[in-house]
């Protein structure tokens, strides 16, 4: 049998040629670019809305110039204020004036509650204004209010407070303070605001009404706090 010999190759043989690796295609950034554009648009829109809102508030304040009301204790009539056996008997009438200094805003007084204190303890609580007698106060105007505190209240004074009471009793002038809690609304044209709940603080000395005492009450301006 004849030998089948493979012909010898001239030179080295390395097999079939290997094609070069395919170059990776660059990924598309189109979707990411769209997201960035949308985010930038909404961010700029938000900033523009904030700036416009700030300008609107600034223009409103410059045009309307809103101001809180002013409050005074005009008169105080104290006919009884006696403490014994841990019980305070009292009878006091206070006349107030509320002043609206605004040129464009009216005020609705929906509710006013007054609390009277002596030596840091509350001894009376009355309604000055309720829904039955609520009223509208027009711009640049003043309106009177009154509060009647009458009755008795049980509370305990320590020795220092009793000494202070005896001193006030001797002088027939008592250091009393009143806190008033309001619920009001503002009106501009046909627009009416929501409820505001300012607090008013009135600190004053009130003389006992008697034939002996010559002390007189001094009109007192109260502090109005909207916060």
Task: Describe what you observe in this structure.
This protein is an alpha+beta fold. The protein has a domain at 70-225: Immunoglobulin-like (Sandwich), CATH 2.60.40. It contains two helices and eleven strands; from the N terminus they run αββββββαβββββ. Strands 3, 4, 5, 7, 8, 9 and 11 form a seven-stranded antiparallel beta sheet that branches. The protein has a four-stranded antiparallel beta sheet with strand order 6-2-1-10, with no helix packed on it. The longest helix is centred in the N-terminal third of the chain and has 35 residues, at 30-64.
Topology, pairings included?
Elements lengths: L29 H35 L5 E15 L2 E14 L5 E13 L2 E9 L5 E3 L3 E14 L4 H13 L1 E16 L2 E2 L6 E9 L12 E2 L1 E3 L2
Antiparallel strand pairs: 1-2, 1-10, 2-6, 3-4, 3-5, 3-7, 7-8, 7-9, 9-11
